[in-house]
Recover the amino acids of this structure.
């Protein structure tokens, strides 16, 4: 069964669609129940697929949101900042104790 809702896009604020559905395409360890939520925005091309049971992200695409992990060339001062960000992020993840 598939359910659709009209919601606001978390990326740009325009109207987007939230779809709840069951799919055998996602039957793996991330979403063992195959119950998927898809949020899709036609205005900014935002896409999020996540498991509805454990809220783990299966796939995501959000144009305009930058990530420090996509930096191709950096100078020495940026390298120090990037190392601090990566270190603090990894410490937070370890504290969460996720399976």
């Amino acid at each position: 069964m598939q359910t659709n809702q009209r919601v606001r896009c978390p990326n740009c604020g325009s109207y987007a669609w939230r779809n709840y559905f069951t799919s055998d395409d996602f039957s793996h360890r991330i979403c063992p129940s195959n119950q998927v939520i898809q949020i899709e925005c036609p205005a900014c091309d935002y896409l999020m697929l996540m498991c509805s049971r454990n809220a783990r992200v299966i796939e995501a695409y959000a144009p305009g949101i930058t990530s420090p992990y996509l930096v191709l060339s950096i100078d020495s001062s940026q390298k120090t900042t990037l190392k601090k960000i990566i270190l603090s992020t990894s410490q937070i993840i370890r504290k969460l104790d996720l399976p």
In short: The CA atoms of residues 50 and 56 lie 5 Å apart. Residues 1-65 form one domain. The helical segments are 76-96.
